[in-house]
Design a protein that fits this description.
Elements (H helix, E strand, L loop, with lengths): L2 E5 L4 H12 L3 E6 L2 H15 L4 E5 L5 H14 L5 E4 L20 H22 L5 E5 L25 H22 L5 E5 L16 H25 L2 H24 L4 H41 L3 E4 L3 E5 L14
Helix pairs in contact: 1-2, 3-4, 4-5, 6-7
Length: 336
């Protein structure tokens, strides 16, 4: 039996991971922020697996004091740790202003980057006691949407600008780079890996928002703000800002659709999905009509330009006008 720590273990990937590890007979230490939700998840896992070695520990990943207390408790109660799974993350996109922790850190950065590094360093001596110690950092599938994203190394704490969705993916990129750094620089036998996990239904997307309608409204607000920012950037001729706003809108829309698929019973999901389909259908029909009209007009033009005479005579005597076909686009393209 291995002793495995899973952060953010009361929902989503963390809960699914804890459930499977418990089914395999391992001791699972669930590191959660909320006592009530953590205990409910723990009892569900015990009930379904019959494994009583499922332990709940309360820890606020955004607080260094809380992390320090958590590490001290684990060190006191267990001789070694076999696996540390850094899964817990802050993705509260409803947040309109950044939150600064008591340690002076932006809260998403503290939770998503500082906490995994702190736990990895602090628990490394216990992991080294294992015959096959591992640190597993959970990356994000969403990074595939931003293949050219660059880490804002000069603004990790969001002192220049803050957007929760952008910060989340910046954090996940930083965690990925941090994983590579730890793998190259940690001395010992503990293995360090970063993985993406797909197809796990997130029953509680973010701890701060439990109601699906509120969550969807938060996504829509971000999309609306991004569209306004995009329009303003275009008007001001700021291409970089326009690209950033467009990327935010696109990425949030993809996340919104995924969330709606995971929460089909939400009133907003049903109404918004119908609205999206209606709007998409109307737009498609309008575009299709314009394509047909354009193709017809271009075909008429192409036919006309080929048959129109090069020289026009007035009364059959004087030249009224002349032109060369080479001065014109004889063949205009049509949509297929």
């Amino acid at each position: 039996m291995k002793t495995i720590i899973v952060t953010g273990a009361n929902a989503g990937i963390g809960k699914a991971c804890s459930m499977q590890l418990a089914q395999l007979g391992h001791r699972v230490i669930m590191a959660c922020r909320n006592q009530q939700r953590g205990e409910a998840a723990r009892q569900e896992i015990i009930s379904q697996t019959g494994n009583l070695e499922v332990i709940l520990k309360i820890v606020d990943l955004s607080s260094l004091a809380s992390l320090t207390k958590f590490v001290a408790e684990v060190a006191k109660e267990y001789d070694q740790i076999d696996v540390l799974i850094n899964n817990g993350a802050d993705f509260d996109i409803s947040r309109r202003k950044k939150i600064v922790t008591e340690d002076g850190l932006e809260s998403q950065f503290a939770t998503n980057v500082v906490a995994p590094f702190f736990l990895s360093l602090s628990l490394l001596p216990m992991l080294e006691k294992s015959s096959a110690g591992k640190i597993v950092n959970i990356s994000s599938q969403g990074l595939v949407m931003y293949p050219f994203i660059k880490l804002r190394i000069d603004d990790l704490n969001c002192q220049k600008k803050y957007d929760p969705a952008t910060q989340y993916y910046q954090n996940k990129l930083a965690l990925l780079m941090l994983s590579l750094y730890m793998k190259e620089n940690f001395i010992g036998k503990t293995k360090i890996i970063a993985i993406r996990v797909t197809n796990v239904k997130v029953d509680v997307l973010i701890d701060a928002i439990e109601d699906a309608n509120t969550t969807i409204e938060g996504y829509l607000t971000i999309i609306a703000d991004a569209r306004e920012a995009f329009a303003a950037a275009i008007e001001n001729g700021n291409a970089a800002a326009a690209d950033e706003a467009a990327a935010l809108a696109d990425g949030t829309f993809v996340t919104l659709v995924s969330y709606m698929e995971d929460n089909p019973d939400s009133y907003n999901t049903v109404s918004l999905y119908s609205g999206f389909i209606s709007e998409f259908t109307a737009s498609t029909n309008a575009v299709t009509f314009m394509i047909i009209t354009y193709n017809g007009t271009v075909t008429d033009y192409n036919t006309h330009i080929k048959t129109f005479p090069n020289i026009i005579f007035v009364g059959g005597r004087a030249i009224y006008n002349s032109y060369e076909l080479t001065n014109y686009n004889v063949e205009l393209p049509t949509f297929k």
